[in-house]
Amino acid sequence: MTNQKNVIEAMDMVLQKNVERDILIEIYRAAKIPDWRAVRRLVAYTLRKPVSHFSGLIANLDTIIGRDGIVAAAKYALPELCRPADALGQGGIPASGPLVIASNHPGTYDAFSIISNLPRDDVKLIVSGIPFFQNLPHASRHFIFATHNTNERTNVIRQSIRHLQDGGALLIFPSGRLDPDPSVLPGAVDGLRRWSRSIEVFLRKVPESRLVLTITSGVLSGEYINHFIPRMFKNDHERRRITEFIQVIRQMVRMEPLDLYPKVSFAGPLSGEIFQSGGRDEQSTLIMQKAGQLLDFHMNRFYPGSKLQNAQTEY
């Protein structure tokens, strides 16, 4: 028994070291740090404690996924990172059968906020194919890895359709990029308009699927929105990406939860069969109308009277 425990602990240590390496690689990439050994060693040394702390959390989450499932891991993660998500409409999410969950993507902890409120563990997410995700033994089973390669994109669609045909749940962020967080930034409606037609593709291929539209907010701190570094970038999306990066790095350094209160609204499930009739433009328009109505509901319930409320709901 002791030998088995020692083996498990050794495996956990190896996993954490691998996660540390992958986190540093992602930091180098996101911060565009040049591939100079001395510079990268300095960054790694400076961030050694927060990276070790954060990688320990990620490795622990992977272990929880393998033992208790991804929903339990998401519920564990949120209090470690921010606050538990305040959700509406989660009681209507189908507990079985093919399901597409389509959400805006304000970043950071939106996936944790959504998954923590699901009644099922068979969910898969479409994520970028960076090593950080690929090298997690248990979590990676819940990921479908996307790249910019056209041929591999086709494979992503096939894997997603196969998962739905097997009766699984699929969480997608149809804009394919970071969206404005409706709680602190205008432009959420524009984010919805960027949604790809992937939703219609999945529902046409697996018409017995249900669709649950989702809006998430409250995962990006206003403290970092006004940081001087993001303001150096003219592109809105690049500013949001840098803001998210700064927030994550600051949290790693502080090694404590952020004072954030994620909010999630789930719409009632829509039958995939209603998307079988009409042209593609009609289907896309219907989805945009439903998503816009959900955003309106979300802002009214969670941010009544805020300056951003009216700015988000012109769909």
Please count the beta strands (DSSP E, at least 2 residues each). Answer: 8
Low-confidence runs of at least 5 consecutive residues: 1-11
Percent strand equals 5-15%
Q: How far apart are the first and last residues' alpha carbons, in Å? A: 61 Å
Main beta sheet: 8 strands, mixed
Q: Give the SSE string.
A: HHHHEEHEHEHEHHEHHEEHH
What gross morphology would you assign? Answer: globular
SSE-based structural type: alpha/beta
Give the fraction of residues assigned to helices.
40-55%
Rg is: 20 Å
CATH topology assignment of the largest domain:
Glycerol-3-phosphate (1)-acyltransferase
Find the CATH superfamily of the largest domain: Glycerol-3-phosphate (1)-acyltransferase
Number of helices: 13
CATH class of the largest domain: Alpha Beta
Number of discrete domains:
2
User: What is the arithmetic mean of pLDDT?
Assistant: 87
CATH architectural arrangement of the largest domain:
3-Layer(aba) Sandwich
Quick summary:
This is Acyltransferase-like protein. With 315 residues, this protein is of the alpha/beta class. Helices cover 52% and strands 11% of the residues.
